[in-house]
Amino acid sequence: MSHTDRRKKRLPLSFSLLYALPVFAAGAPVLAQAAVTSPSSETRAAAPKKVSVHKVRAGKATAQKPSTQTLAPQTVRKQNVVQAPSSARTIQQARGAGASAAGGTETVEVTGSYLRQGRNTSPNPVQIITSREIQQTGITNVGDFLQRMPSIGSSGTGNADTNGGDGVGCVDLRNLGSSRVLVLIDGKRVTQTGMSGGSCVDMNTIPVMAIQSIEILKDGGSELYGADAVSGVINIKMRHDINTGAINVRGDITQRGDNKTGLISAYKGWNFDHDRGNITLMGQYDTVGGVMMKDRAWSRNPQTSNGMNPGFGSVISTSGTVFSPDGNPIYNGNSAGGSSPYSKSSRYNYNKDTSLLNNTQNASLMGDAHYDFSKHFTLYSNVMYSHKTSWIQMAPIPAMGSVAPSDLPSTIYLPTGYPGNTAGDIYNDPDNPAYLYRRMAEFGTRKSESAVDSLTAKVGANGEIIAGWMYDASFTFGSTMSSFQTSGVGDYNKLMREWGLDAVTPGDSNTLLTYNPNSCVGYAGCVQSSALGPLSPEAAQYANYTEHDHSQYTMRDFNARIHNDHVVHMPYKGGGDLGIALGMEHRGEQMSYHPDPLIAQGGSLTNTVLPTGGGFNVSEAYLEGNLTLLHNVPFAKNLSIDGQGRFSSYNTFGTTYNWKAGINWSPTRDVAFRGTLGTSFRQPSVSELYGGTLMSYNGANDPCDMTQITNYGGRQSTVMANCMKQGINPANFQQGGSGQVATLNGGNAKLQPEIGRTYTFGATFTPHWIPGLSTSASFWHYSVSHSISALSTQYVLDGCYTGSDPSMCSNITRSASGQINTVSALNANLGSLTTSGVDWDLSYRFRVTDADWFMVENNFQRLVSYKQQMVPNGPHYNYLGSITYQSQGTSNPTVRDYATLTWHHNNFSVTYMMQYMSGMHWNDGTNTIYKSQGYGRVKTPAMVLQDLTFNYNLKRWNFQFEIQNLADKQPPFLVNTSSNSNDSTYGGWYAGRSFLLQAGVNF
């Protein structure tokens, strides 16, 4: 709308007040009460209006004024209504309750559609989260907040992921994986952040104060938004058109005095040229202090096995552990460079040196601008930049030999004549000697630091073409540059030189070794040392090494569309309008990863990673139509159908077409029924296509291990026979490596897209005779075929040795000592996945006195099924109600719930928040385990997490005090290779009870 148009068309005062109420309600509860109880204002607010695609303004009275004040929590709820990006919602609008909401006379753009539709008339299940809901939790990043939602899964990474997360916060929807959910900002794609083995939109880099709302489309969205929207779309809507300012400061600390967290954020906006233009600047800086595993009793001592007599810590000691040829520890090194009999007391507790919660610092800046040249042309732009650093600490690195594709010795054999090797007197076969594992404490703890710079810049234009046809065209550029540094990884060649160990057959990774007492001659700084004794500071300095890696991701996206909500009116009584939207998109993504040269050569003691690079381009066209068949007739307050389709052409795998159909029927203003059916797809990501080969140490148990063979029940004889065929006797063989197996992962340029199908149906009930009440229920079902993944290490091992999949045996290599050398698990189009469940949401606001009112909100999810097929034509494994142990695997609780209760008294409010998660049986990657002989614990209990928040508003000032994890509940025990729990599922319990204090001011 042009400036002249706005002057001619002044909105009623009550209409303007409704836009201002969300800001002033905390300081003026009388106005808030009027907004809820006044029928006249409610009716006028529902009057139709034109809304700019980018903003809504009606002079100064309606300018958006985001507030740091915390009002009534606006429940995370399933609604079919969202606000225009620049419009501050009233409580009624946010709830979608009351006569205006039921009537569906006001049109808004809903995530999942490019057409404006009446309230409660969209067939898509959309969940809305407001900025106040996020702020009242005291959480400093979006990813941690979303973990509270029952629909958010556990396959992403969080701040407790110390082995591969790099401080990146990925998000997962319906436990379908972070790669199957599309994250947008203001409806447009944004840059991704690379991490070990993949990439995602880093939720930790998005400034919380800049968020106006988050909309979650819990349905496939590929037919409208393109690839990756298999489980749904998370659309983060940012604040725009601000002409005020605010500063917010917060800090929190655990009752144990650690994990100190601080945040300062601010924004300021300016209108200019009689409100035709606006410039807004926002900034945020936050820091998280972290926690060490040794500082929590439940994570202090790592349990690495699930037997009745479980093992703790690592057999790889700082003095060195000598193994017999059949894999049993027999000797430890000593300070004199000799050896003494092995003792369990020498096992190493690696958790005493390992981070539980990462240290992070993040600085974010956002600039937003737009200018109305006329109603036909509005120019807008947005730039987001973040610089994030994270720091984690891990135990000193173990020296265990090289890993593929290195040609250095894969096993550190001790020659029979090696000084101090008393094992050589017993195991004196020169072709089958004892071997050594040693934790290099002299190199110090590994400190991994990452620095990530992310930039997303968008420029576009929108406006009216003619006769109701609108357009929106934009170009988005995204770039992420990451650098990683890890100290204490060691130079394998230099270490072997100092130990005097030379390869008998250089270039053969399976070579035996010979002792060379003069190996350091001619090498400056090299100090001749014993592998069975400590290194001197000079020797450690020579053999130590710090790696430096770099990665870059780039995205270019051009998007243009036109739409008309009222192309034609149906020529019969009670008929509605036909709306059409169509557009095109061209996108290109490129990624490169440059590991440290020594790492790429396999010359260090850490994982081997190869350099990689690649990209793809896609051109797409899409079409949407929405037809209102009946409107305001008996038994059909609204009856509408919606159809969407998208054609995509990739330069990598070819073309694909996806579609979705939906229906919405509102027999009365109080109830609406909806349903959708559609397809979706996920393109192989750049990292999945071109990701370089990398070696990781995954939690897994060798089936041939003497302590594991009994766990295979009726298949025990088959496992034993297959082990014996490879010269391994399970009666006395013991796995090395503390339950970790070197696993080769990497990209596959021949990958094809995943194919998905989704259907949903549900109902929304907003009875006009119970003001303030809104409830909805939905059933959802997802299926994914040709799923892209790497087989779990345990699945490969079990498939081979149980005989369930003999082809897996070719993916396993063993050293001459019988120890597993590597397991190959590259990306591939494997089996399928199906899951279904039920959502139920409730929101009820009621007043008890003039000064007091309550808000009750609840979000509930019941998982009905979760089945996965690992390989084509293979068995379907049931993961319902189970959690993967041995590593940081996914979890599928049957029931999840998030509830809040708020009491408001004038300017004071108290909010109680509760998360519930049902108990789960443990799963070893293929099968759920139950209590039986040989097993220890087999399940986690039901868990409850409680928070309590106090808020007080004093004019322009607001104050908040919060107790997080009110009961100081610790996470449940789960056997794995690190923290004795699962951070992606129970990360909210990790820190323990914490206290938060926040203050803010508006100006």
Automatic annotation (TrEMBL):
<keyword id="KW-0812">Transmembrane</keyword>
<keyword id="KW-0813">Transport</keyword>
<dbReference type="GO" id="GO:0009279">
    <property type="term" value="C:cell outer membrane"/>
</dbReference>
<keyword id="KW-1134">Transmembrane beta strand</keyword>
<keyword id="KW-0998">Cell outer membrane</keyword>
<dbReference type="Pfam" id="PF00593">
    <property type="entry name" value="TonB_dep_Rec_b-barrel"/>
</dbReference>
<feature type="domain" description="TonB-dependent receptor-like beta-barrel">
    <location>
        <begin position="428"/>
        <end position="966"/>
    </location>
</feature>
<feature type="region of interest" description="Disordered">
    <location>
        <begin position="38"/>
        <end position="67"/>
    </location>
</feature>
<dbReference type="InterPro" id="IPR000531">
    <property type="entry name" value="Beta-barrel_TonB"/>
</dbReference>
<keyword id="KW-0675">Receptor</keyword>
<feature type="signal peptide">
    <location>
        <begin position="1"/>
        <end position="25"/>
    </location>
</feature>
<protein>
    <submittedName>
        <fullName>TonB-dependent receptor</fullName>
    </submittedName>
</protein>
<dbReference type="Pfam" id="PF07715">
    <property type="entry name" value="Plug"/>
</dbReference>
<feature type="domain" description="TonB-dependent receptor plug">
    <location>
        <begin position="121"/>
        <end position="233"/>
    </location>
</feature>
<keyword id="KW-0732">Signal</keyword>
<dbReference type="InterPro" id="IPR037066">
    <property type="entry name" value="Plug_dom_sf"/>
</dbReference>
<dbReference type="InterPro" id="IPR039426">
    <property type="entry name" value="TonB-dep_rcpt-like"/>
</dbReference>
<dbReference type="InterPro" id="IPR036942">
    <property type="entry name" value="Beta-barrel_TonB_sf"/>
</dbReference>
<dbReference type="InterPro" id="IPR012910">
    <property type="entry name" value="Plug_dom"/>
</dbReference>
<comment type="similarity">
    <text>Belongs to the TonB-dependent receptor family.</text>
</comment>
<keyword id="KW-0472">Membrane</keyword>
<keyword id="KW-0798">TonB box</keyword>
